[in-house]
Amino acid sequence: MSPKQPGRLYPPRPPADSPVQQARKALADDLRELLKRSGSSGAELARHAGWDVSKTSKILTLVTSPSVDDIRAWCAFCGAPDRADDLIQKMLNVSSAYVEWRRRERAGLRSVQESYVPLWERTERFRIYETSVIPGVLQTEGYVAAMLRTVIAFKKLRNDLPEAVAARLKRQHVMRSGARTFIVLIEEAALRVGFGGSAVMREQLARLSAVTEWPNVLLGIIPFTADRTGRLWVPKSFWIYDTERVITELLTAEVTITQRSEIEIYESAFNTLAELAVYGGEARAILQAASKYYS
């Protein structure tokens, strides 16, 4: 086992296409741009900061991760001390945002479901975009059970299905209380991804039809036929919690985004997607058509 490198905040050598590595590269690009705008060289930065000349290159090529002090020194030298806090937050996000599911799921899916309760209870406005499944907050018991059973089998997790289902359904009280606002956008394709068989899907689609009339929920369906010309195409589902954070899930991990500049990008994407969606009677017509698919 190689010795741990002092000050390293990132996982060692993640895959090149992983969110961690992409975020590290984005931070390095920001630092490179600051240095370029200052008109100075990496060697000059190193002399000013009092570190080895190779350290600048190692930071920019992702060999070494910068510390908080490194970033402050870098920004000060480049005449941009006001950028330090933003870049430090970006660095900290890299180290904390990428959470391996295997570690969280080891204790069973019930604990995963319950871990979201504090965040849900302090959030007043939820903005949800789902590409391929019904959002958990709107799922019926049958749909929840079928979906979590699939996850347990695929990932070979400890089987705590009844407890996990109960924990997920219990979280829905946050929506049913009426004290919070939910804006939910679902791709029409998600209505055709079946869990639990035809009867379960018909029940789930009937639930969604009813939800279109709930006062604290705005449910939009993005039709297959929506014209996306000149529109942003978003490949991953994501949830926005107030203006505090964005969470998106991968097959093996969950990524949490708390940097305001990045959250604003997701908010802009959500607004664009909302313009593509249909609501009310038009949404119910799509739901009814999907229900016939399961007849």
UniProtKB/TrEMBL annotation:
GO molecular function (one): DNA binding
Pfam families: DUF5753, HTH_31
Source organism, top-level taxon: Bacteria
CDD domains: HTH_XRE
Domain DUF5753, first and last residues per copy: 121-288
Stretches the record annotates as Disordered: 1-24
InterPro entries membership: Cro/C1-type_HTH (IPR001387), DUF5753 (IPR043917), Lambda_DNA-bd_dom_sf (IPR010982)
Protein name, UniProt field: Helix-turn-helix protein
